[in-house]
Amino acid sequence: MTQANFSSVIRIVIMLTTLIYLSLCLMGGLEASYPLQSAVVHFFIFLASLLVLRHLLLLASAWVETSLPPTQWPRQDDWQPLVSIIIPAYNEEEVIEASLNSLLALEYDNYEIIMVDDGSTDSTVDIVKHLIRHNNPKLIPTRVIAQSNGGKANALNTGLIHASGEFVLCVDSDSRIIPDSLQKGLRHFRNKRVAAVAGNIIVANESNLITRFQQLEYMLSQNFIRRGLSLFGVVTVIPGPIGLFRKSALSQARGYDEDKQLFAEDADLTVRLLALGWHISSDEGMQAVTEAPDTISSMLRQRYRWKRGIYQVLHNNFFELLTAPGKRRSLIAILLVLEGFLFEVLGFGVTLFMLSNIILLGEIKLVLGWLILLFALDILTLFQAASPKQFLKYLPLLILQKLTYTFALQTWGVLALLDEWRASKMTWDKVERLGLLHQGSNS
What are phi and psi of 23, to 5 degrees? Predict the structure, then answer.
């Protein structure tokens, strides 16, 4: 059997298993048979226990990670390593000025900026050249490299070829970097095993419920999970808006995968670095303010691509991790399965059971118990992740987000996974830029 055929078989088996599990959950909720319902309920109790254990472990590790005294490296009065900042851009005239201005104002002395224009047809390049001439008081070395459109991964690799720094900061062109981010990110590289540092994402345009929900999601899910995994050096996704790398590690991993059918090039690079034995950290002080999709349609298109991309990364790297020497990479493989799709599929089964139980049979006890558990875990996470001011700001949104946005994304994520497993075609989708980067803050 060829590798392609084996890959197809794995996808089909996972898809059929998922559909059988979801069908059993639905029938259990409808009380098709008492033994089935009892078995499903007992399984959900086990799942709830597993969820609580996972959450408490992440909370504890995130607390320890943020409580550790920060390493001072390099010191302000010492040698500062050269950092190359790569910013790929394709038709980014709405946001490139705010993004580049933030890079020119970083509180660090020794860095260069490489903007790779990936075949833009608007005024992106003209704006960048104007800023270099008229808004670069520190005379930061800044280059514009033009190429025909080859995709984001190709543009990043082009930047890597021209990068002179010992460390490389990769940023999205719709992101504004907080001034002290470089200094905070670099301190992690005192540990020679660290290949990269993932940054913290802040939504710039909290202009409606959709974008506010996304900011809350970043705090309760993505940023929180990265902070919890950072203690063990096993962060599984370095976000596109801000990621700081050791260049030698990037060279060993051979840069970004330029396969245009791979829809999460940042996650793929992260996992390949982990597979090589490197550690990946996270720093909540290394921050990028970025635009979030402000409509339901654009947000769902983005998350559809993310979900399929994350599964692709898992599928492409799982067996290499599982069979690598030592236990650490095998545990990372299991972690990717749990966080990449298994928890989402299992949670969606619970949702199906609860909805069928309450809509058709009027049973609310299990639903209330499950929701109270989820709310309690989210409140604990928000308390740990947010400042007192942020906690009071986002707490009222939490209930509405959980009852609408979270379950909608869960459903959409499972549909995206089913499409990926049946190899449905998908193309890259560029989110419309709004030019609102100046609205975000790190408060």
Answer: -65, -40
Residue 442 tokens, joined: 């790190």
* pLDDT of 335 over the 70 cut: yes
Residue 303, CA distances (Å) to 243, 320, 414, 416, 419 in order: 20, 26, 11, 9, 13
50 vs 92, 159, 300, 321, CA distance in Å? 44, 43, 28, 23
List alpha helices for 254-400, DSSP H: 265-275, 296-322, 328-337, 343-361, 365-385, 388-400
> Is omega for the bond preceding 74 within 30 degrees of 0, making it cis?
yes
Give the integer Cα–Cα distance in Å for 272 and 270: 6
d(CA 40, CA 25): 7
Maximum C-alpha span of the chain: 75
Do the Cβ atoms of 122 and 181 come closer than 8 Å?
Answer: no
What percent of the chain is helix, strand and coil (3-state, nearest 5)?
60, 15, 30
Q: What are 85's strand-pairing partners?
A: 113, 169
Q: Going edge to edge, which strands form the sheet with 279-290?
A: 142-147, 111-118, 83-89, 167-171, 242-246, 194-203, 279-290, 175-177
Task: Give the residues across from 202 on adjacent strands.
Answer: 289
Residue-wise pLDDT for 86-126, tens only, equals 999 999 999 999 999 999 999 999 999 999 999 999 999 99
- Cβ atoms 124, 100 nearer than 8 A: no
Alpha-carbon gap, residue 193 to 273, rounded angstroms: 11
Whole-angstrom Cα distance, residue 90 to residue 404? 34
**Average pLDDT, rounded, for the chain:** 91
Which amino acid is residue 164, in one-letter code? S
What confidence tier does 199 reach under pLDDT thresholds 50, 70, 90? very high
Tell me the pTM: 0.92
* Residue 205 Cα distances to 61, 213, 254, 431, angstroms: 30, 11, 35, 14
Sketch out the chain's domains with CATH numbers: 1-443 (3.90.550.10)
Kindly give, in sequence order, each residue whose CB lies less than 8 Å from that of residue 331, ignoring residues fewer than 6 positions away.
Answer: 234
**At which residue do the structure tokens 């078989």 appear?**
9
184/170 Cα distance (integer angstroms): 15
Query: In a 3-state reduction of DSSP, which class is residue 244?
Result: strand
Cα 338 to chain centroid distance, Å, stands at 15
DSSP letters of 56-110? HHHHHHHHHHHHSPPP--S-TTS----EEEEEEESS-TTTHHHHHHHHHT-S-SS
β-bridge partners, 115: 87, 144
Single-letter residue type at 118: D
